[in-house]
Amino acid sequence: MKKILIANRGEIAIRVMRTAKKMGIKTVAVFSEADRNSPHVKYADQAVCIGPAPSNESYLRGDKIIEVSKSLHVDGIHPGYGFLSENADFAELCEANDILFIGPRSKAIRVMGSKLAAKETVKAYNIPMVPGTDEAITDIPKAKKIAEDIGFPILIKASAGGGGKGMRIVENEAEFESQMDRAISEAKNAFGDGSVFIEKYVASPRHIEIQIMADMYGKVIHLFERECSIQRRHQKVVEEAPSAVLTPELREKMGQAAINVARSCDYIGAGTVEFLLDENLNFYFLEMNTRLQVEHPVSEWIAGVDLVELQIKVARGEHLSLKQEDLKINGHALELRVYAEDPMNDFLPSVGNLDVYKLPEGKNIRVDNGFEQGMDIPIYYDPMLSKLITYGDTREEAIELMIKAINDYEIKGVETTLPFGRFVCEHDAFRSGDFDTHFVKKYYSPSLLEKQEHIEAEIAAKIALKHYLEEQKILRIPN
Ligand code: MV4
């Protein structure tokens, strides 16, 4: 593999190119008209404009990306996350054009993209699943009987959904039919596929995911778990590895289950198997994400691997040389997603210009960034600016360093989720490790953030005053 094209933008495009360069592989960036001056364009060896700002006219144009790849003699395409990364048709188009798609084969993407097909596929592998139906519901009275057997509340999920899209809680049997009707028509509208199924609703779960890596010769390893329960409306905010609640035995069990999920679909490359973990530490398979994830750096840090390097190696046919028994967890890593969103105003995108943009630096701090000072933040894409990742020998150290690094950011021009990240890191429930997916809903409100900012401003003012008075003393000493 001599040259790869990165079909993405922002921090992940740069992150992939960094590893490609390390491996001596040439890089091609693609960009939209809104991203002409973006860092990922400058960072690449070659760059090609593929269309206007809207994603469906640029970063989602698989046909154009293939065309560019052919004319520049690209060997492989790395899709990053989002955009075309889980588009089975695009992976197939790459296969048909003899360009390596750096990811699983299109078949695995297609199976895991359908939640019902995924359940069907993993069934033979003894993977724990939430009680529910495993076929699309066509007979509503029959489904209602099943719901009564399972016990309310239940959850209706769209087969073509995922990541929380197309879900509906049904509290009791009285509302079953109406919710079912709505769920089906919603699914039809949103995904063009009205297939829905039901599951018992797990009320206070943690969201634990396992990173896996597979080569094309049937070897599959796992790189431990990530705890992703700190999320807001299905948008993860803080992720960490390892989880504060897994025992080595449970980790081993979940790791093996994840490996089996990968085996069930002949998976190749990096993938993530999502589980729910209930209060009694029972785990249930939810879905598999067939791409590199935003939060992959926390796994890289504790496992001591470069996941993009492994992706490229297995894509070009190398054997995985890592052995499961040689892998172990070292220390603790945390990631905060820094969004240009206003935590005081319902996390509305805060568009504008990055008048000041200075990033924290130092030992055990990693910032995966896609922006630079002076840039406008385009309104067309996800408003994530960068990811702040910190590491420590212990969870406490990683948290303390996260707070320090948050304070070392200097951003003017837009509001960001940095103060919200500090709120999470300072919260007792987070620090104790005793939290679930309802953390934000349960504990966060803008007024609490205001209070915290106020206290911090007061402390800062007091420190400044003390300095001032001390300086005055010094100045008053006569010569
Ligand atoms: C669930 C659940 C409770 N019970 N399934 C949301 C994302 C999608 N992957 C599945 N999700 C959930 N499925 C059952 N049977 C609760 C969620 C859920 C959730 C899961 C992970 C992380 C955050 C979440 C927030 C709300 C709901």
TrEMBL record:
Domain Biotin carboxylation, residue spans: 1-445
InterPro entries in the record: Acetyl_CoA_COase_biotin_COase, ATP-grasp, BC-like_N, Biotin_carboxylase_complex, Biotin_carboxylation_dom, Biotin_COase_C, CPAse_ATP-bd, PreATP-grasp_dom_sf
Enzyme class, spelled out: ligase
Keywords on record: ATP-binding, Biotin, Ligase, Magnesium, Nucleotide-binding
Coiled-coil intervals: none
Gene Ontology MF terms in the entry: biotin carboxylase activity
Enzyme Commission identifier(s): 6.3.4.14
Name of a matching Pfam family: Biotin_carb_C
Taxonomy, superkingdom: Bacteria
ATP-grasp domain location: 119-316
Protein name: Acetyl-CoA carboxylase biotin carboxylase subunit
Native source species: Winogradskyella marina
This protein's encoding gene: accC
